[in-house]
Amino acid sequence: MKKLYFSSVLFLCFFCNVIAQEVTVVEDTDNFSWTYQGADYKLPTQILESEVIKIEESVAARTCFCVVSYDNLTNKPHRTGECLDLTGVVNTTYSTMSQNNRNKCNNKCTMAAAALTSAQKQSIANCACAANKGTGTIITAFSALSTADYLTAQQIGVLTNSPTVTQTTCKCPSGWLANDTNVDGGNTSDGKCKKGVCSPIGVTPLPPNGTPIGSSWGFTWGNAIYAWGTTANGGAPTCNTVVISPAVCTLK
Description:
16 strands, 6-stranded antiparallel sheet, alpha+beta, 27% helix, 2 domains, disordered N terminus, 252 residues
């Protein structure tokens, strides 16, 4: 009996050794398979992928994101209105999504935002002005740990966005009347100059005041005919534009 048992053990050891030598394992990124005595065997891809995902999730680093935006990102899952990304400055990851780690991430984002230079703040202001954000828009830094919603970290400033204010003055040449004041060579607020070329009109009834002559040549008024001033006839006004106040785009 003992001899039979001993013989069986030897046979099993020999058999396993043969299998170990004859099995060929083929691995790639899409499947896991092996070949034994001409027969192919394959481990289901789903099993491999699920195990890989579990391993990746267990060791994945949770990035601490930090962005400056003219939109209110508080409790929002995605960023919009971004003018500066400070994630690289914060340069921090965490192993878990705990509230404590979210708070730590928020503190680091706050410190990064507080260290912004004047040049960086002006760049942020220019970004908001280019997006046509109006005066009073609040610019803020927000933090988010991995896929968690954003939290308010640090207010950067309040935007002032005022366009350039200009004033244009147009003066008619001598011998031409300013359209709105009838002053010879005067300033014209509507940019038009006119000159009477025929009076009186000897036909009645007279046409209504302002009856156009041609598409833009002139018009009638009372019993007279007037021509509009143009560059061709020498009656175009001379205009000059000055800046009353320059554009302002800044954070306060």
